[in-house]
Backbone:
C-alpha cells in the first residue's frame, strides 16, 4: 500500500573525493502526496552518499515535512531512509500526528525512481 509519494528537488551538492571512497551530501526539498499525508519537504533535507571505487555504496537521507494528515489536521513528519545502492530503501518515520502514528511501527520500503524527469521516492508498506 502506498503511504507517501515524494517529489524531490535537489538544491545543492557537496562532495569530497577520497583515495578509496567519495562522500557526497545532496541537499533537497520537495513535496509529498498520498491519501495519508500531503505537504512539503522542508529545506535542509540531506542525502549522504558514500561511493566505493567498486561501484557499490550506501545512502542515508534525513528530512522533515509539514502538511496535512488524512483527517485534515496539521502534521509534521520526520523520515530517515537508508539503503545500499541498487536495493530498496528502508524508511523509518516519526510523526506528531495520531492519524499517521501507524507509520512509526509499520514495515516500510522505499523505491527511488525517475518519473517524467522528476526524482521520486515511493514509500509503501511491506506485505506480510
Residues:
Amino acid at each position: 500500500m502506498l503511504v507517501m509519494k515524494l517529489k524531490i528537488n535537489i538544491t545543492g551538492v557537496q562532495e569530497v573525493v577520497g583515495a578509496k571512497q567519495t562522500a557526497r551530501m545532496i541537499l533537497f526539498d520537495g513535496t509529498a502526496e498520498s491519501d495519508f499525508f500531503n505537504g512539503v519537504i522542508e529545506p535542509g533535507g540531506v542525502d549522504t552518499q558514500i561511493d566505493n571505487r567498486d561501484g557499490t555504496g550506501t545512502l542515508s537521507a534525513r528530512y522533515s515535512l509539514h502538511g496535512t494528515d488524512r483527517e485534515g489536521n496539521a502534521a509534521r513528519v520526520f523520515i530517515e531512509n537508508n539503503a545500499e545502492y541498487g536495493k530498496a530503501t528502508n524508511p523509518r518515520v516519526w510523526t506528531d500526528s495520531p492519524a499517521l502514528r501507524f507509520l512509526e511501527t509499520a514495515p516500510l520500503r522505499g523505491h527511488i525512481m525517475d518519473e517524467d524527469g522528476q526524482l521520486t521516492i515511493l514509500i509503501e508498506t511491506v506485505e506480510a
Remarks:
- The chain has a mean pLDDT of 96.
- DSSP finds no helices and eight strands in the chain.
- Residues 2-122 form a domain with the Porin fold (CATH 2.40.160.20).
- The chain has one domain: 2-122.
